[in-house]
Amino acid sequence: MRSVKLVSELPNLKAVPCNYYVDNHHKYSSPAIIDTNHDDSLIPIIDFSLLSSKDPHQHSKVIQQLGRACQQWGFFMVVNHGIEESLMKELIGVIKEFFLMGEEDKWRYKGEKMFDPIKYGTSFNYTSKDITTYWRDYLKLSLHPQLHCPDQPNNFREVLGEYGEKSRKVARKLLSGISESLGLEEELMNKSLNLDSSYEVFVANYYPSCPQPELVMGLPPHSDFGLLTFLIQNDVGGLQIQHNGKWININPIPNSILVNTGDHLEIFTNGKYKSVLHRAVVNKMERISIGIANCPAMNATVSPAASPLIQNERFPPLYLPKKYSEYVEIQQTNPLDGKSCLDRIKINSPPLK
Ligand SMILES: O=C(O)CCC(=O)C(=O)O
Ligand SMILES: [Fe+2]
């Protein structure tokens, strides 16, 4: 196994090896229509500090904005979240240091099994049946209920622990706000999905500079599992999201956290807040992105919320109940292909082979 970083550093590499060519069988990959009229200035911005506002008018306004952002976009930028910019920069720095370590040092963390708490690798993941190799190295860690972290670089655990804890508080508050936006009791999601033992995965993506970026893909179109994903990045863009059938480039505003809704929020809300397709393209500059997937507890069974506001005679449940860990297993052992995992548990959808 070779990391893309190593491939990108081969002496005189002018052309990308052909196993990295993106194959166009992915139904959402091609043609890549980039909507340049719709730039990312339209992405909703949520002022996190207003969620705690004592002014009921301000509070209900931000709850409405949050609901609209989830329903119409599935992506929004969170500002005034209270996490220090210096901490986020430090984390990106530590991650960069990790990927710059020697190959042998990194492959020590390869992991053997799907639920191993620390996994370093390249492309999508090593059990995948995907035939394309993606221009991406990754490090995946279990962050919660228990923190797992490589022992190098030295300050990794400390920085990760602090960022993990702070971002968990932000996630919980956003999820309560999202429940409120649906008219649900604030604690309903917390209780039904056992969020005190929420499963959280930390994913660091390293996309080395690429001599022919138009031929490859960093990550193919996919939706995220879990409830909400938090994303931060170095100063290089590459994320694209699908909105009204077109791909839009996203360049988050400095010091914001980009949040997107995941498959399990779609299930819990019975399709009201849908997860959104996104992908990562690469370019001639090295890019680092860091995501945290905030998920239900591993042993929680996820189904549309048991509330007449979510399922009733007019809106019967659209998704089959499934244990969260079983869903992750499907997601991790199949090629990334749009929202095909979610399609498997949709009621009335034809069974997939
Ligand atoms: O690198 C990015 O911007 C996207 C990463 C992503 O979608 C993921 O890790 O699930
Ligand atoms: Fe993603």
Structure in a nutshell:
The protein is of the alpha+beta class and 353 residues long.
Describe the structure.
With 353 residues, the protein is α+β, with helices and mostly antiparallel strands. The chain has nine helices and 14 strands. The chain has one domain: B-lactam Antibiotic, Isopenicillin N Synthase, Chain (Jelly Rolls, Sandwich), CATH 2.60.120. 27% of the residues lie in helices and 20% in strands. Helix 2 (56-72) packs across helix 5 (156-181) and helix 3 (85-99) crosses helix 5 (156-181). 41% of the residues are buried. 2-oxoglutaric acid binds next to strand 5, strand 11 and strand 12.
Overall mean pLDDT:
89
- What radius of gyration results from the CA coordinates? 20 Å
- State the order of secondary-structure elements, H for helix, E for strand: HEHEHHEEHHEEEEEEHEEEEHH
Specify the helix fraction band: 25-40%
| Strand arrangement across the biggest beta sheet | 1-2-10-7-12-5-4-3
Number of continuous helical runs: 9
Descriptive labels:
single chain, 353 residues, alpha+beta, Jelly Rolls, 8-stranded mixed beta sheet, 4-stranded antiparallel beta sheet, globular, binds 2-oxoglutaric acid, binds fe (ii) ion, metal-binding
Ordered list of secondary-structure elements with their pairings:
Elements: H1 4-8, E1 45-47, H2 56-72, E2 75-79, H3 85-99, H4 103-107, E3 118-122, E4 137-144, H5 156-181, H6 188-192, E5 200-207, E6 219-222, E7 228-233, E8 239-243, E9 246-250, E10 257-261, H7 263-268, E11 278-280, E12 287-294, E13 301-302, E14 322-323, H8 324-333, H9 340-344
Parallel strand pairs: 1-2
Antiparallel strand pairs: 2-10, 3-4, 4-5, 5-12, 6-11, 7-10, 7-12, 8-9, 8-11, 13-14
Helix pairs in contact: 2-5, 3-5
Fe (ii) ion is lined by residues 222, 224, 278.
